[in-house]
Every structure is written in C-alpha cells, then in structure tokens.
C-alpha cells in the first residue's frame, strides 16, 4: 500500500459521509499517473502554491492601493486568511481539508492589479467581458505552465469558479470557501480601515456589534462557530438566518462606508486611464507581449482575451512600470 492509498483509506474511515473523498474525485481533464505520496487534492494544492500566479498575489491590491505601511492586507494575505478559516471549518466538520485548502488558495488567482477597480475596467473595455472568478479558472486551465495549465481536478476548479456569493459549488468544501471568503474580507478590511483612520469600531451599527461582537476577534469567533454548528451533519454549508443576516448587513455597511469611501478610493480614479492605455497599446502591438501570450493568439485564442490575460496577470507595480515605460518620456542619458 502506498502512502497515498493509506491516506485515502484514512479518509474513508474518518471523514464525514458528506465529504469529497480524494479516491472518488471526478478527476482531471488530462489523466495522470497517481502520485505515490500525495492525494489528488494535495497535488492540486501544491501546484497552486508553487504557481507564478500565486506568487504575484503578494503585490496585488486588496482594498488600499500602494499603502505605505507593510501591515495592510494584499491579495495574498487575504488568500492565506481565507485558507486558514476554511481549513478550520472543514476540519471541524470532518470534511476534506486538502480540497478546501486547494480551493481557498486558488480562488483569487485571476484577480487584476488594483483589486476590483482593475476588474471593473477590464470588464468594461474587453468586448468578451472579464470576471476574476472566471479568470482564476482560466489561469489554472490555460495560462499557467506556458499554456498547459495546472490540470487540476474538477472539484477544485468548480470551487474556484463558484466562490462568489451568488454562486454555489457542488462540494461542501467549496461551499466553505464561499462563506469564509466573505467572513475573512469583511473582518480584515475593518481592521485595515481602522489602521487607515477611516473607520472606528464605534462606527459599526450597534445591532451588528451586539449580534456579532464588538471586536474583530469576537465577530470572527461568532461567525465561525455559527457556521460550524449549523452545518454539522448536514449536506450543505449554512449559517443561522439571524447570523447570516447580520453578516450581510455588516457587508453592506462596509460597501457604504469603505468600499465606496472617497478617501479610501482616491487613487482608484487613476486606474481606468492606466489600464485602458495599456489595453489599447497591447491590442495594437500584440508582438510586444511576452511569448507565452502571443503563442496563445497563434493557437487561435481571441486577441482581446489574451490582452486581458496579460494585463490581469500584472502586479500593481508592474502595471505602473509598463505604463511609465510606454507612455512617460525618459530622460536623455547623455551628458
């Protein structure tokens, strides 16, 4: 018996009947020889963790563009917080935390530079549209490994695609990530807003503070406990109606008071011009993109999609660097 087979046997004995067992995975688009040590979901997790797209998340905006302090969240730290919360819930419910972790680590791989501001710009200017959750799947299926993709299992790709609140993954592990994504960003964005001096704890409505808690720690504790205990021994991941309503009220409060706050978003007004300029340039100068992108067009991919692929994969500082290189006159190097 291999180490992988032993792990699969352990899953069959210890995981919930509602768990996604690795031995029963729907598989990959391209068949592969099984690893002797790792299950399919462990391999997926490792492939995501070692991907270039994952590393680039460290320099992509979460809420605040180019903050001076090192303590503000980035898209990478958000992803790690979602992963930690998701694994906690998954283990408590005896679900497959390897699958949960893989989905959590991959759920935002397709995010643009400058956060949702960049996503909105690409969705407006690309005739084919642009949504980060769809792009995250495109990253793992088509863009990584020079066009070969990561060849992840169907369960992981489904969880990545359907982590949005208005969508629903078919595994409970994916449903956990869907909840924990919201739990994570609502609470860590409050922490960052307080750090920025844009919000105080007392600004949060009393009804929410009384129902969920008066600190970030208390709210996380309330939300996580509610999610776990109301999902236990059920074939769905859910909260109590009261707690979910309070969570969504807090999310609405954050949209009204932070995500559309003029002080927090003052730098975002520069994003449309910057990304639209880059998009227009590369649309007219396809050959100036790296070979791994021009190759996709040679293989029949629409140029508009590939230009979006290239721009969405940029980090914040790289997008600024390319803009300066293409549109800002350089100093003459002579004496």
Question: Explain this structure to me?
Answer:
The protein is 59% helix and 0% strand. It is mainly alpha-helical and 335 residues long. The chain has a single domain (3-327), classed as Hypothetical protein af1432, CATH 1.10.3210. The longest helix is centred in the middle third of the chain and has 24 residues, at 172-195. The chain is flat, with a radius of gyration of 21 Å.
Keywords summarizing the entry:
335 residues; mainly alpha; Hypothetical protein af1432; 16 helices; 59% helix; 0% strand
CATH class, please?
Mainly Alpha
Give the name of the CATH architecture: Orthogonal Bundle
**Biggest sheet: strands, sense, closure?**
none
Helix content: 55-70%
List the helices and strands in order: HHHHHHHHHHHHHHHH
Query: How much strand?
Result: under 5%
* Separate helix tally: 16
What would the average pLDDT be, to the nearest integer?
95
Alpha-beta classification: mainly alpha
Using only CA atoms, what is the Rg?
A: 21 Å
**Overall number of structural domains:** 1
Q: Which consecutive residue ranges, at least 5 long each, have pLDDT under 50?
A: none
Distance between the termini: 72 Å
Give the beta-strand count: 0
CATH fourth-tier homologous superfamily = Hypothetical protein af1432
CATH fold title: Hypothetical protein af1432
Envelope shape: flat
Give the helices and strands, then pairings.
Elements: H1 3-14, H2 40-49, H3 52-56, H4 75-92, H5 97-106, H6 115-125, H7 132-143, H8 154-161, H9 172-195, H10 206-212, H11 216-231, H12 241-259, H13 271-284, H14 291-298, H15 303-312, H16 316-327
Helix pairs in contact: 2-5, 4-5, 4-9, 5-8, 5-9, 6-13, 7-8, 8-9, 9-11, 9-12, 10-12, 13-15, 13-16, 14-15
């Amino acid at each position: 018996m291999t180490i992988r087979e032993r792990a699969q046997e352990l899953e069959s004995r210890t995981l919930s009947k509602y768990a996604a067992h690795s031995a029963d995975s729907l598989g990959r688009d391209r068949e592969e020889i099984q690893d002797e040590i790792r299950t399919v979901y462990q391999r997926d997790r490792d492939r995501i963790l070692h991907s270039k797209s994952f590393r680039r998340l460290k320099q992509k905006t979460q809420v605040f563009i180019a903050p001076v302090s090192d303590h503000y969240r980035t898209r990478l730290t958000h992803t790690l917080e979602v992963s930690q919360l998701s694994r906690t819930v998954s283990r408590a419910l005896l679900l497959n935390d390897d699958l949960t972790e893989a989905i959590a680590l991959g759920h935002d791989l397709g995010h643009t530079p400058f956060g949702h501001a960049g996503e909105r710009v690409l969705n407006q200017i690309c005739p084919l549209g642009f949504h980060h959750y769809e792009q995250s799947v495109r990253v793992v299926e088509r863009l990584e490994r020079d066009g070969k993709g990561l060849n992840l299992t169907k369960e992981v790709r489904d969880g990545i695609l359907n982590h949005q609140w208005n969508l629903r993954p078919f595994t409970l592990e994916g449903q956990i990530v869907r909840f924990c994504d919201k739990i994570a960003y609502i609470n860590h964005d409050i922490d960052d807003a307080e750090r920025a001096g844009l919000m105080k704890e007392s600004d949060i409505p009393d009804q929410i503070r009384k129902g969920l808690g008066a600190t970030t720690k208390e709210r996380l504790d309330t939300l996580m406990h509610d999610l776990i205990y109301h999902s236990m021994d059920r074939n769905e991941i859910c909260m109590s109606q009261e707690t979910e309503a309070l969570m969504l009220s807090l999310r609405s409060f954050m949209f009204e008071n932070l995500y559309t706050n003029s002080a927090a978003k003052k730098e975002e007004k520069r994003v449309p011009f910057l990304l639209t300029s880059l998009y227009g340039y590369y649309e007219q100068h396809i050959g100036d993109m790296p070979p791994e992108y021009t190759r996709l067009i040679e293989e029949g991919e629409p140029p508009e999609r590939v230009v979006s692929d290239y721009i969405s994969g940029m980090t914040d500082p790289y997008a600024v660097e390319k803009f300066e290189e293409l549109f800002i006159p350089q100093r003459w190097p002579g004496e």
